[in-house]
Structures are given as C-alpha cells and as structure tokens.
C-alpha cells in the first residue's frame, strides 16, 4: 500500500492550489486523500490577478468530492499534510477537528506543505509560533500575530514545513516539499 498524504480543504479553496499538489504527489507515488468538513462535492474557485485591480479576483472553479470528513481522519494514517489556500482557510481555521489534525502533524514532526491563505489554519491551531513561513503577502500581520516570521519567498523551508505565497510559486514549493518527503517520508 502506498504512503498516504492528507490534503485538507473546503469550499472556495483555490483550484490550482488543490489540484497541483494533489496530482503532483500522486505522480511521486503517494496516495492523496482529500478531507473537508463533510464528505460532499466541494466547489473550488479560481483566483486571478488583473491589471489595475487592487487584489485578486475570484471566479468559480472546479468541483471535486471530499474523500473524508475531518472527524473521520486519523492523522496517524498519514505521512504528510498539505494545506492549500483560497478563501477556504478563513472558515476552516475555526474547525476543532481540523485543528486536531494539524496539531498532530506538528507534534509528530511530519512534513507539512502550506500555501497562500493556508497559514491561517496553522496560526489558528497555534503551531506557527517560532516558525518561518511564507503566505499570501496580505497575511504578513497574521503570521506575525501567531508568533511566526513572515518570509516573502516562493519555497520557504522551516524544518519539515514548506510554505509558499500563492499558486505562481508551485514549481519551487512542491519541489522543496518533495525533497523533504524523500528524507522524512519516502514512498513506501
């Protein structure tokens, strides 16, 4: 049986930030399970950057079924965690089951990849304190308020945690995460 990676997300997650790691990690030989607040078909979004617009725009994206609800997840079954961005982390961060899952990965020093607004989840779980993390640049005060050091970089590696700003950073982000996985959680 392949080593398993957990990807946690929900409605309004950024489509690219879900599907790029989902497919890329499968290419590496991992089984990737998607967990959300409930087993249902999730509605993702597309964030794009438009000239002369002060922030990103949001359009409907792909839909995809969640494999598991957060309360069904035994994090001990997984070798690593992926936290995509989009708007989903704004409401997911308050979910106690998700906080339980996230804390397990940090407490057991398992690899974690987070991108864009994903650090809102790790901040709410209380695990960013003392860590270096990239995030969508507007989250700089949130990372600092959680006791972390914001780094404006495409692939920030802090131990087993790999973070990035947004989907344009995907190649460097996942390349760095795969390097961590090959050392800490190679494919079984």
UniProtKB/TrEMBL annotation:
**Name under which the protein is recorded:** DJ-1/PfpI family protein
InterPro entries xref list:
C56_PfpI-like, Class_I_gatase-like, DJ-1/PfpI
Where the record annotates domain DJ-1/PfpI, the positions are: 4-179
> Which NCBIfam families does the entry mention?
PfpI
Q: Which Pfam families match?
A: DJ-1_PfpI
The UniProt family comment states:
Belongs to the peptidase C56 family.
